[in-house]
Amino acid sequence: MKPLFITATDTDIGKTFVCSGLAYALKKLHIDVGIMKPFACGDKQKTGFSSSDLTMLTNAAMVNDAENIINPFFFPVPASPYTAAKNLGVKQIVDIGSGDGRIAYCAKVVGLQSYGIEIDENLVGLENKISSSTGVDFQPMTADATQFDFLSLGLSQPVFFISGLPEVGEMLANSVISRIMSIPDLEVNPFFVFTGSHMMRKDSRDKSKWGWGQVIDHYDLEIVKTVTLPTYWTFDQEIDTPFIFTRSIV
User: Fold this and answer.
1) Can you identify the CATH homologous superfamily of domain 81-248?
2) Bigger pLDDT: 51 or 144?
3) Pairwise CA distance, residues 44 & 63, whole Å
4) What are the extents of the domains in the chain?
């Protein structure tokens, strides 16, 4: 059995269409084909499969496998975190603690002005290699976000992705949010995105709002959207990861 894995950097750009074409062509060559769409999202259909993509794939491959085998994970929100940010009307993404740069990279691909701020110079070196090899300039920089001059970026309608799970990233969040809230002349109140958790340890200090309740309440932030994706950060995170989009209402 030889698997083929089809992927891309955004939603609704033809992955399912290409897979269906391949499955149909292989079937016509009398090759036994199995298909799988591990993650699907969108408006759940009232009849048949949850996703219309599954109908297209199963028809093309001529298979009758159960839905939970073909599509183990279905989500009702048709958006990735960076696409969700774009849909909220922001123009710039600042990824704080950007790591390998995946959020800033993908945000740039979908048309947002992007910045990646990372204190680890080795990770920034990796980001620069990715940027130069792909031609996607998501502007990675080595800096301490708790001391960074955000005013220098000339932001107008920004969203800030703050890395770190609840409690682990709390010190970073408190320092960064205070600095950002003092930026004058923003066209709109800034958005902040936190990486939450559905799994709380017994000794967790804050079990409200996916672990970020105290920070959200302290800065008078309004939750405007939550995007949940199957991302594993720690052994405590056994289900998936909610990205909590908030906006300052001060």
Assistant:
1) Vaccinia Virus protein VP39 (3.40.50.150)
2) 144
3) 21
4) 15-75, 81-248
Helix, strand or coil, per DSSP, at residue 68:
helix
Question: Which pTM was predicted?
Answer: 0.65
Residue 136 has pLDDT above 70, yes or no: yes
Structure tokens given for 94: 């600042």
Residues facing residue 159 across a β-bridge = 93, 191
Beta bridge partners of 117: 96, 141
Residue 4's alpha-carbon distances to 19, 34, 35, 37, 214, in angstroms, are 9, 10, 10, 12, 45
- Supply the DSSP string of 210-248, one letter for each residue: GGTHHHHHHTTEEEEEEEEE----STT--S-EEEEEEEE
Q: What is d(CA 45, CA 2) in angstroms, rounded to the nearest whole number?
A: 32
Q: Please state, in angstroms and rounded to a whole number, the distance separating the CA atoms of residues 98 and 170.
A: 16
